[in-house]
Every structure is written in structure tokens, then in C-alpha cells.
Amino acid sequence: MPLVVFCGLPYSGKSRRAEELRVALAAEGRAVYVVDDAEVLGAEDATVYGDSAREKALRGSLRAAVERRLSRHEVVILDSLNYIKGFRYELYCLARAARTPLCLVYCVRPGGLSGGPRVAGADESPSRNVSVSWRPRAEEGGRPLAAGTGVLGEPQAVDSVVYGRAQTEVPKELEREETRTPDFPALVASEFEKSAEHVSGAFYPPELLEALALRFEAPDSRNRWDRPLFTLVGLEEPLPLSEIRAALFENRAPPPHQSTQSQPLASGTFLHQLDQVTSQVLAGLMEAQKSAVPGDLLKLSGTTEHLRFTRPLTMAELSRLRRQFISYTKMHPNNENLPQLANMFLQYLSQSLH
């Protein structure tokens, strides 16, 4: 079944979008499985992205979890940052090896790619698990305040989810901070109806957010591993369910190539017979050329192919070509070719020597 990869910085709405997609696909009777950081780590921990060794182990665990779940019976959703294009290419190769479609959903925070929503008092108590989205309060005339207005006509309400309880309040610290910096752009986003367990509980320090923004490698639809690409700005933009369904269930899976295909099975005696047959051909050619003159055809018993004799051949030259032929044949073993190994080797010699 298909693989859906979510990509984006923290506080961009990836987890909400992943849950919205899971609910929509499950309502159609499809089996959906979500792989995220919390499942791999046991508990969501943002500090893992500040340690390169731990982050590398996390990516390996996410990749292994996706590989285990890729099957013909489940839709797999990977909900993580996935900000490294090399890791996204590895996921593309997994989907290609499994012969299943893949799509990428890129979530962008309306306020830009750097930084996350600031919460009043977060610096004083960084251990609080808080996820916040901001929405301006409507004016008296019923029209909402425009995002990015220079002067705030009235305090803005903050809808937050703290420890699973929805609260609506205007913190004094936040109100004073907005009064001091009137040019700070407001982040406009609508709230989804969801339970608190679907909200990311990881706290990202400001310095880690800045580091992630600098390291972020944005998806590019020109890359085959980043398409089809769906870009969502904020939580207000509707999820393109019809387009995602078409990309997952109507598109063809990427065709496999040599790097993602399993080697065909070969008998245990294939390499032994290959070595024996090629050695016999070399011995027969060295013996046949002793009585040959330029222009003769060197014929060997048990073969239908012939080698035209144009000059004396040395054992070193023939042995080098034999090693090349064996290396190539080992990459594509086929028991059906065993009776034709001698003829194939003679054809290879004829093309390589002339």
C-alpha cells in the first residue's frame, strides 16, 4: 500500500494534518498506520534533534519502522520532520523496492520557515508541554483582524492546549510583548476538531528551532523523490484529499531498478560451473591456436560459437577477460543459462578482442 511522507519544521501542523488524513482514509475502510517520533522513541523528545548521533539513530529507526509496515494491506503515514533530502530519497527507494506509490506533504507555518510560535513564560519553564495556535479576535464589525497589521486595535486571544485541556486566555506577558513590538506578524490559523493526544507535546527551544531552520532542505517537485508534492501553508488551507487519493491509489508505482531489486536465486553450484566452463574454454583456445593461422576460426567441442583467430592470444589477456565475464555473470545469475555458458563466453571474447 502507499506511503505518505510528511515534511516540515516544528509547529507547522504536521501531526494535525497526518491525523486528518488518517481519519479520512480510515473512514473509507482503509487500514492506516502512522509512524512518528513518539512511537520510535517511546515518548516525544525534541532534544534528539540537537544530537547528531541520536538523530541519526532516530532516522534509522523510522526507516526500519516504515520498511516493516510497507505492505499491500496498509497505508503508511510517516509523521516526522524529514527535513534531509537524502533521508527522503531513502524512503523513495523503500517505496520503489516495495513497488508502491509515494507522495510528500510539505507543511509550512504561515509566519515563515524559521522559528516556532512563542508561548508566554516558555523561557521560564521550558519543561511545559505546550502547543499553541494563534487566531485574532474579530472586530466589532464582525471582520477578523488582518494578519500582519502594524497596530493592534485590541488584545488578541490565544487558543492553547495545555496538558490536554483547552484554554482561551490573554496572558498579560503576551499582551505587553505585543504592545511593545507592533510589527510582529500575527499567525492566522483555524482550530481543528481533535483530541489533545493528537497534538505534539514536544517543546523545541528557540536555539534548536533556529538550527533546524538553517539545516532544513525544502522539498523540490523537480526531484523524483519529492513528487508528487503537496504544499500546505498553515492549518487554514484545506487538505487536498482528492488529489492525495489520486496520487496514492490511481498513480502507478515507480518502476524498480537494479539498486532496489533482489538478486535472482541461483543454484549453489552456479559459480562452480561458471568457473569450470570458462577455464575449459581458455584451455581449448590456447590449444587450438597452436596450429591456427590468421583468418582461421577457432572451434571448440560442445560449442556452436567460433572465435576468429587474428593474432596470437596470451593467457594473461584471456584470463583478464575471463575475470570480467565472471564478475558480470555473477551479478545476473540464471540457471537457465548454464548450458549456454561456453557460447556466451566465446561471444564475449569475440566482441572484446575485435
From TrEMBL:
Sequence segments annotated as region (Disordered): 116-150
Keywords: ATP-binding, Nucleotide-binding
Pfam families, A to Z: KTI12
Coiled coil ranges: none
InterPro entries referenced in this protein's UniProt entry, alphabetically: KTI12/PSTK (IPR013641), P-loop_NTPase (IPR027417)
Family of this protein: Belongs to the KTI12 family.
PANTHER family: PTHR12435
Name assigned to this protein: Protein KTI12 homolog
Lineage summary: Eukaryota, Metazoa, Chordata, Craniata, Vertebrata
